[in-house]
Amino acid sequence: MLDAPSRPSARELLSLSSLAPLVPMLYVAWTDGELTGDELRALGSAARAQPWLDLKSSSVLALWVDPLRPPPPRELALVREHIRATAEKLATSQQQNLAELGVQLAQALAGEAPLSIPPAELAKALASIEATLGVDGKEAVRSLVPRASRVPHAEPRSHTSSFDPTAMTAVLDRTYANVRRQVRGWLEDADFRYKEGLGTTAYRDQVFDWLKHLANDGLGQLAFPKGREGGGDLGAFIAAFETMAFFDLSLVIKAGVHFGLFGSSILFLGTKRHHQQYLPRVASLELPGCFAMSELGHGSNVRDCETVARYDAATSEFVIHTPSETARKEWIGNAARHARIATVFAQLEVDGERLGVHALLVPLRDEHGKVLPNIRIEDCGEKMGLNGVDNGRLWFDHVRVPRDNLLDRYGQVTEAGEYTSSITGDSKRFFTMLGALVAGRVSVACASLSATKSALTIAVRYGDLRRQFGPQGAPEVRLLDHQVHQLRLLPLVAKAYAVDFALEYLVDRYVHRTEDDAREIEALAAGLKAYASWNATATIQECREACGGQGYLTANRFASLKADTDVFTTFEGDNTVLMQLVAKGLLTGYRQRFEDDRVFAVLRLIVDQAATVFTDRNPIAGRRTDTDHLRDSDFQLRALRFREEALLASVSKRIRKRLTAGVEAFEAFNQVQAHLLALAHASVERIVLEQFLRGVADVKDEALKPVLGRMADLFGLSCLESASGWFLEHGWLTAPKAQAIRKERVKLCEELRPDAVGLVDAFGIPDTCLAAPIGLGRLAPGGERFDDTAADSARAGPADSRAS
Amino acid sequence: MLDAPSRPSARELLSLSSLAPLVPMLYVAWTDGELTGDELRALGSAARAQPWLDLKSSSVLALWVDPLRPPPPRELALVREHIRATAEKLATSQQQNLAELGVQLAQALAGEAPLSIPPAELAKALASIEATLGVDGKEAVRSLVPRASRVPHAEPRSHTSSFDPTAMTAVLDRTYANVRRQVRGWLEDADFRYKEGLGTTAYRDQVFDWLKHLANDGLGQLAFPKGREGGGDLGAFIAAFETMAFFDLSLVIKAGVHFGLFGSSILFLGTKRHHQQYLPRVASLELPGCFAMSELGHGSNVRDCETVARYDAATSEFVIHTPSETARKEWIGNAARHARIATVFAQLEVDGERLGVHALLVPLRDEHGKVLPNIRIEDCGEKMGLNGVDNGRLWFDHVRVPRDNLLDRYGQVTEAGEYTSSITGDSKRFFTMLGALVAGRVSVACASLSATKSALTIAVRYGDLRRQFGPQGAPEVRLLDHQVHQLRLLPLVAKAYAVDFALEYLVDRYVHRTEDDAREIEALAAGLKAYASWNATATIQECREACGGQGYLTANRFASLKADTDVFTTFEGDNTVLMQLVAKGLLTGYRQRFEDDRVFAVLRLIVDQAATVFTDRNPIAGRRTDTDHLRDSDFQLRALRFREEALLASVSKRIRKRLTAGVEAFEAFNQVQAHLLALAHASVERIVLEQFLRGVADVKDEALKPVLGRMADLFGLSCLESASGWFLEHGWLTAPKAQAIRKERVKLCEELRPDAVGLVDAFGIPDTCLAAPIGLGRLAPGGERFDDTAADSARAGPADSRAS
């Protein structure tokens, strides 16, 4: 057979504006699946007979209707996405058939410029072509441009909120407001739209393209500005990361792996020559990298990793080797497809001596993407979510890298093979190096919060509109007017705000950290990462259930929010392990408090506790159940402080008792593991409440104070209620007070109900990122949220319509 | 161009045994994506030069390498699945290249029969063909037959359990042991394997094929036996359903929709003529049906549905009509693709009079699958999970059906247009008809439990083998030897057993229901459906997290378990709504208790409560914290009974107070909604513990009693601990006792630890259903669970190896 010219790509097809009106029909012709070759050819002839087609368009069209050249699904998906994206911009979505859709697409693409032929004439021509297609055009349009937004009860919002959501957004955007606005702007580019139905490979490549787009926009420069090889503004980068997490989470994690983990490892563990040589290419994404720390047998326990980096003085090289199957690098993001280099953590061996875990740069692929010799890479395969990230496994078979590739800020090897380090202890050096992970944990905490906000925005907006059940003979009631629905969602909104202020504090502490408080900040990051990611899992689940069947539709986003965030509780440190780290940090501090100044500390502790007891256990204050008392943030905070302090003293005593009795240290800690987790939780929650209150106190805008005050009360009382067993057990709450707290929460939810939608609007999530038809914020021209007319608007009670 | 012969289907290709050795190369040739037409042709020539190919094979092969006939993805997926399924059966998985894989496939297919050419010769020929392919054969085999089972720390199980898991399986299989064994046998057929990467349409068709397979095996006969049109053994059908839920949940739900909802609607709402006309074709799946109850605007609130069925006496027909967009039937399983008929719930209108919701049979598609006139069907689109079920939307435009199509057991319309019913009240009739839903709720509860068991089996087996952290200088410790890991998983295992016995009770009550206890059983089903499905969501999540990164891989099943079960809390009745139903049932009963025999009832209540107070609040018993007392099931059960009774009295008082004050009924209930849910939860949990204890007491096998006793204690004390706030508040627990309960739980977990794996083995889930490489039960010939050698077996402590 002769070789014919190849079919032009979808991109080429779509670039030809004169073909625009025909694109929907072309798509349907190939996907309808029942057209014979003859029918395809007939369609081609009819189309090519149109006088408005130039020669090039005509020949492209001919190749696109060639029955022997079926376009692959990936190409057709591109065509479909193009049609959908363009259709999204149309003022009306009342296309009745493919011809009308074609005309509208042509008009949308032409913009202000007039069409080359009058619309009416074009419509007529297209209608005649559509007839040759022999499909039900109405049906075809419906499946091609699904009006997923067909949601019932389209009606105005229930309330105008008591505050200006835009002013609240400014509060939440705070220090890095500019960066956040900038990223929102980037994400509103038409390129950043969820693509349905991409296969794994195509999805990964899409994510890489998006990342490249962001790198070009300037994302990398935020973290690693040109000419400042010492590093840029990590706080700004984290704010950007948090904002990006309103969109596709694979993109966020891929960005985190490349810029955050890989880039930061060079920044923090490398020295100036590494910075100069690598960071500019990291910032531009010319050199995609990965972070090879975890091993199959050593996930949480990195210190016992097995990969070896032996120094060969004869050649001044390090030899990287994977000695066993459990030593293979596992779950390495960016490794399966795109990374050309890796930061590899390995046991350093110099002259037969083991010097602990160090990091080295190891090239993985050449510039054409071909894997280098002696390196084996395997795909981790399909995951529950985040399938846009290419996680891989790595094996090294005596791979040699130059001596310079050791990231040697904390440990150096001379050419002759002498090891030097400013930190003498292996263990201390190891933990200092692990500090490079802190930015990752901070970022995951922030991304968790963004996903939480997305879910809450969708669920609260839906709950405000959807009606179900009601008094006999009266309109049904909005879901958010059901008591249980308020209790389901509003405390979670309050908690999201609390976490927001706590993360502001974390980022601020992190950005301004010194050597002295580095360990404290590591513990803070560990604790808040665990708290925020567990909260994401729980909140997204509750929101999904609160949206019922609608929440189960992929289009409404909970599917991806759930699947993508599910691993947040595991990666960058398993939450259970991190919380033990927090507890151990507290125990160390506790011991030091006594060792440093034993007498004073004991005295202070006694005084503190006495004050608590005096205020809260005395017959008057302890039994107060009035609103003023319960909504006194001091009262709430003292409760959480008391719990933390009591648990700390108790765990410390338990461990000392065991150690004194000769129980081995690991076993002694294992026996109180549940207590350690309770202590860590108490401590983190105290910090969250403290920072929420601090943040609210700092707000300048007086108009926002009442609603923020209620939110803080709701969060504070929710903390108390969820641990009421503990507080009752320790005599800190009495039964009537526990009951009063429950009542007060119900009251707070009622009071916050009218502000519910405003509170989620203030998260400032772009509609294009949110994407869920049941959760969009923009109102259609008619003042309604959705494109359906309010079928039962007669039912709606009096309500205010408000543009957001 | 001339029409050439069409490419033979994948099925044809795979049926030719002489092509078997070439199949892997053919697959790789098409999926590698980089072969040019010439390379394809070269491959074809090389292959066809082989002397062992007969003419037919040769021509099929030629068409499969024709560059102009790329096989569609669906066909390639079939080929891949065939290769994988065959490769699964191979004793070794050490194929190094495509040629070796080809030889092994040929041998596997040939079975005992000798190959037509000697294997060595075949291998040589294949190797030369492979060379023409120019791909990395090792890499290709790795991605074609992923050895997902490469899991670390392959080592023997930690303990031999204290009991015989097989005996425990017999206890759990109980009444319907035969049915369960039969279904396990069906599922072990090679046809029932998870298929990766199917598109939605292919997946739906696969599920339909599976269902057809099961119908042929006899599944439908269980529910609707031939010749017994009154119905068969629903208990047996539910047991089959529960067992099927160890496998693909889309299949289970599809079976539930067709046999359960659709079939049962005919059985329960229809009369003899419907049974005779339809049930045999329902049982055989000749007539796939769906159950059209929910409407877009009326999910939980079915009574307000809008679809109308107006009787036209002139033609003796009913006219089914969708009057508005909110009235469209929504989420109808089986509707988007396969159903040919629907049971439609609609407001019956006879002679201008509205008679409430009734059910009618409405044909949807003709025997060729073409949608009938005046019916519109739309696909609901992609969902979070269960994408093998084709949920659709239905609109009826004055569709006419014969008078006979009214399912008229509870309400009849004469030809002249007169309505008759044995139940006078519309409301009572409506709730009687809703009774048809009960089987669905029972089934969802059972399926929830099965999914819970799958997750627990995987997580417990993995936790028993995976090691992480440990004492310095000693082997790392198995996850399940960490205290927190025991506390995470073992109470959930105990709860799964508890739910198992509670569901046995529910099914038994359901099967033997009478008109008198129908309402009580509906409430029981509603409550246990909510309890079991919420438990599934929570347990699967905990298990996923307990498996860390491994839990996030699709291959390890949590992804589908989570996504597929997520809607269980929503469909067949939203859990929150169901729990309110439970509470309202209790309130009705409470009122009746007083009305029926006020004096006696009050007296009994006082006596009951006095007894409780006497036993548990007196200074001696109330403060006992010893093991004997805490592990006294009477003590645990009294606690739960006290809570239920106290909440019931309190809620009743609150509602009465409001109603007396003139608050409108809906609003009065709304104000105590949170209390209603607490009451429902307390009641359901009391029933679960009661039935667990009853079940354990009934077990004949004395050897199982100790472990079951510990499990019941763990469940009972977990109930108390999770509500310790409430019990402390109500003076039912003292602080030292609450603390003692916590300690006792830790101790119980320690005691149950060695039995953990045995307890999940007893669930009896076939390995082919479980499928998760980290959770399989079979041991490889070497006594190890996985196919990797135990890289660190040196680390393993003394342990017993045990076949399961």
TrEMBL record, chains A, B:
Lipid metabolism as UniProt keyword: yes
Pfam families to which the protein is assigned, alphabetical: ACOX, ACOX_C_alpha1, Acyl-CoA_dh_M, Acyl-CoA_dh_N
Enzyme class: oxidoreductase
Enzyme Commission code(s) on record: 1.3.3.6
Domain spans labelled Acyl-CoA oxidase C-alpha1: 435-587
One BP term from GO: fatty acid beta-oxidation using acyl-CoA oxidase
Domain of life: Bacteria
Necessary cofactors: FAD
Domain Acyl-CoA oxidase/dehydrogenase middle: 290-399
Keyword hit for Lipid metabolism: yes
Residue span, Acyl-CoA dehydrogenase/oxidase N-terminal domain: 208-285
Localization terms from the record: Peroxisome
Domain Acyl-CoA oxidase C-terminal: 634-775
Family: Belongs to the acyl-CoA oxidase family.
Protein name per Swiss-Prot or TrEMBL: acyl-CoA oxidase
